[in-house]
Amino acid sequence: PARYYSREFMEKEWKFLWPRVWLLAGVTSDIPEAGDYTVFNHGHESFVIVRQEDGGIRAFYNACPHRANPIALNERGSVAKFTCAFHAWRFCIDGKLDCITDEHSFEPKLVEHRPGLTEVRCDQVGGVIFVLLFIVFLLGPLLAFGIWGVTSLWVIYRVIRGYLLFKESKPIPG
Description:
Number of helices: 3
Oligomer: single chain
Structural class: alpha+beta
């Protein structure tokens, strides 16, 4: 079927599906210690998923807020802080801005709000990490798996996907 190779279908999925569903982004065993990170690329988007000091996991767009350069250049690693290679802005593993190199050389209005990394909704279930780009559903995967189970989630996914695709389709003549 054309949906497997159609550019138009792919664009509809990017607009109506992928930003609104939980995406499997990694496994917790890849980031066991604070500062350990893994990069998850999905189409044209890139995310850095990092283990926090308190043992939690957070996800951010893998982009410096200044010039959108990647802050994590390797697929996996461990850092005390992320550093953008463009102007050497440094960010803590919780996404907060730590330091702007040569801050005096920047327009004050550009940096006065102390821009940090842009966070993405992140949750984990059974050692699997999920990210959600656009918060439409209020239930995280942990709650959803607990209440409905995997089979029901698959059915819900198929219904939502079908609805979104149907909404964009045109009636068949004849």
